[in-house]
Amino acid sequence: MSRVPILLLVVAGAGAAGCVYYNAMWSAEQLAKEARRAEQRGSSFDARSYWARAAMKAESVVVQHPRSRWAEAALVLQGEGLAKSGACDRAAIPLGAAARVVRSEALRERAALALAECTLAGNAPATAARQVADVTTSSDAGRRSQAALLTGRAAELSGDYSAAAEWYARSAAPAAAPARARVLLAAGRAPEAVALLDTLARRRVREGDWGPLLDEVAHWAGPDTASRTLDELLAQEGRRLPTGARGRLLLADGDRLFTAGRAPAAGARYAQVVALMPDSLEGLEARVRALRMLATQADSVADLVAVRARLGTLVQSGATADARALDALFRHVLDVEDVQEGGQFRTAELVRDSLGAPHLAGRLFVDFARAHPASPFAAKALVAALALLPDARDSLVAALDSRYPASPYTLALRGGDSPAFAAAEDFLAQSLGVEGEALRELPPVARVAPPVPGPRGPTLDPAPSRMSQAGSPAPPRAGARPRPGQGDDEPPRRPRPAGQPGSPPRDSL
């Protein structure tokens, strides 16, 4: 074979190899562009997927063509892709290598930004701020803006909200302005934050940005301010929001108002959702929550029966988790077969603690005291009604003073100390039939002795045997129950009300 064909083969092979790693790098860059577009759309899942694929393509260039002219760019892109896809544990190696070998200032700045993102994810804000300190003065506006954003996040994580607000103000990144509003609220500068939110409402709106922001406004400035901010947002840019996004924002606003005790305003929000999207899941949830709100305002059992009938229609058309939970709560309250005093008292507690209907619960407690005037818990029922029926306070206090002056609950209300109070609570737990249930819920290693009603005092069992010479107590009798003060003696707690497994305990009075 002559030398000319051999030379042609060598040149062709070199060109083919160059095309291979050029194509791989081009594919990696295209995937990175798609990832950035997804980030701008707010599609974080798609963005992470594109970044992960870009990292794989870039890694192939680094491994197979380490001496090519695109090797440094591929190394940085590999680290960026891993960091932005959530694989910070794997991103440390390429980003660390980039810091040592990359000569381009632009590439070094990109690597520093990606490394700082991972450092923030690892909750090391001071280190992250140092990593991007030089990039905050970069000649490139985009990287300078991103560095300011990350420095603001570092300051926010450190609790320096004023510094965070200043850094966020220096960034043009889409996430900077919402973040600045958030830290202004946390810094107690609510008027500035609300003014900034009004400005943001004139820009392109994303549900993912505004949902958490409105929660922050409600937390720091109150639910009414958050509701007004949402009204401004919908008035200015509501048409750009998809119908589903508007419905979800309105539904969340209704929930915030309802939690804050603004029942009429919450009902108006739920009605807006139903009118906006009546045949949607959000519309069904709004109907259920509106019924939940009506239940809290019930004055009589008949009112609850009427609300339950309306709920039954919704359950038949398509039950959501909220509808099933509310229906189960109605069953606990209305389908009560136990007509004894323990069951009646329990129903009043459910209406108060689980259903959240204070006026009806107060009436049920008063009815209980009237129906069972000799019950040891009649005074407890009147004390419970005091907190629920403020307009009837004088008459309730007079009834307590005249009928039950020596009751441990009356004494506790007056600030007195009654040794019979704990015994009365134990007896109430037994009367409600919750003792065995509470014990069954405990794991075997935490099982405790059942409560012993009556005054707390010396027991009638024989005194423990003498201490052994080694100074340790003699072992307890076989089958003996733990004594008060021996560790496992705390009586079981009464279970939480149905429908609110995680709700904080209310004052049992």
Key terms:
509 residues; mainly alpha; Serine Threonine Protein Phosphatase 5, Tetratricopeptide repeat; 2 domains; 68% helix; elongated; disordered C terminus
CATH-level-2 architecture of the largest domain: Alpha Horseshoe
Spatial gap, N to C terminus: 105 Å
Which fold name fills CATH's third level, the topology of the largest domain?
Serine Threonine Protein Phosphatase 5, Tetratricopeptide repeat
Structural class: mainly alpha
User: What does the average pLDDT come to?
Assistant: 79
In N-to-C order, the SSE pattern is: HHHHHHHHHHHHHHHHHHHHHHHH
Detail the poorly predicted runs.
Answer: 6-18, 434-509
Helices, by number, come to: 24
Count of folded domains = 2
Radius of gyration: 34 Å
* Shape descriptor: elongated
Quickly name the level 1 CATH class of the largest domain: Mainly Alpha
User: What's the number of extended β-strand segments?
Assistant: 0
The biggest beta sheet, please? none
Helix content: 55-70%
Tell me the strand percentage band: under 5%
CATH homology superfamily of the largest domain: Tetratricopeptide repeat domain
